User: What shape does this take?
Amino acid sequence: MIEIAIIGGTGVYDPRILANVREAEIATPYGEVKYKVGDYAGKAVAFIPRHGSSHSIPPHLINYRANIWAMKKIGVKAIVATTAVGSLNIEMKPGDFVLVDQFLDFTKSRHHTFYEGGERGVVHVDVTEPYCPTLRAVLLAAGEETGIRIHPKGTYVCTEGPRFETPAEIRAYAKLGGDLVGMTNVPEVVLAREAEMCYATVSMVTNFAAGISPLPLTHGEVLDTMRDNAEKIKKLIMAAIGKINPGADCTCLHALAEYGGFKL
Ligand code: HPA
Assistant: This one.
């Protein structure tokens, strides 16, 4: 039984931390999903590199629905994701980790739901607390155990990309209460909630956002910061995985109770 998954963002393409890694694929109504499975601390853990294993899928073309559906279909209950982000908040510096607790959605062209009307019907899922409180507590505890400092809260602004933002956009997002900016967490987090899975994201600050940083942004800068901190993020995630109890109940697992539950 594979009950835990990692979705690796920019810079986290390889499940090297897992033992006995094997490749697998599964069909979904949205297309086939290739993933890896390995073992850690006596648990089978699935791994999906969100952008593909060589960063070939841009944020707006990621098949978010297929990825989440695939994880649900193999039995996953808890997903720990990583995301690379720019920072709008001077307290959140390159190299810092943030356990985001809210998002602002500025995406434009993505499929945001498994419920497009017709036979599956219409669902209005609650995202008052979009990130799983149980997994967030586990990640905070993993931070304490490993001595890795994590900002316990932050508002993630999701942009459409693939371009970086203008300084005017960043100023506007900061006024709206955003702390971090990235291109991938929406709709991933929402689809996980619709699929009644626990989901949390560790965001790694790779740069100060456009206009806050005095220099033009480069993808190389994002990758360099990720690379410098790759060991830390892996250590944090693996410590968290050791602490996840997939048998435990959580409100996320009943998110669609009002609609009779999520059905594959
Ligand atoms: N903007 C959007 N996405 C990002 C950034 C950024 O500055 N850094 C890493 N991902």
